Amino acid sequence: MPRFTAEELEAARDRLVPDVVADGLRVLFCGINPGLMTAATGHHFARPGNRFWPVLHRSGFTPRLLKPSEQQELLTYGLGITNVVARPTARADELTAQEYREGGRLLALKVARLRPRWLAVVGVTAYRAAFDDRKARVGPQQRTIGDTRVWVLPNPSGLNAHWTTETMAQEFARLRAAAEAVRD
Fold it and tell me: Is 1 inside a domain boundary?
């Protein structure tokens, strides 16, 4: 992983990070928004200490631990990545309520177009803000977007001390089992 100066990271605020998507995915993972390290590298969940890639592997979604630079390989497993809000920030609390709501609207349009089996939003607070669902909890949601079911996962940020890597992997594994189940 390259090291970036503070100036290089700040310059990344203007970069868009392309989605890793295809039609008909098993699971479309949805982050809150790109961090500056993600924007600087162009790779989702790139910040050292973010547990997304280790949890994805430990939960059985991938047969080996992928590096952020290998994100395109997710498509071979029927997985993809997008974000609620496209704007890179140093911290998610830099986002406005309006950005979350607009991000939720655009995400619903994207999901309707791509038709993944599951949309997995990583971060209950982001899900609540984007979809105006203050009572949402981690796990499967009642909401659907067309035929796409919705699951809220814990935020894999290293700052999320409420979840360990192991308990996070267990929740991701619950989603994996549901995604592998035969469609009703």
Answer: no
Residue 129 in any domain: the answer is yes
For the chain, the domain total comes to 1
* pTM for this entry: 0.93
Quote the Cα angle for 103-37-7, to 5°: 110
Per-residue model confidence as pLDDT tens digits over 31-82: 999 998 899 999 999 988 899 999 999 999 999 999 999 999 999 999 999 9
Which residues form the domain of 74? Answer: 6-180
C-beta of residue 52 within 8 angstroms of C-beta of residue 167: no
Do 117 and 25 form a contact (C-beta atoms < 8 A)?
Answer: yes
Whose CA is closest to 118, among 20, 16, 26, 18? Answer: 26
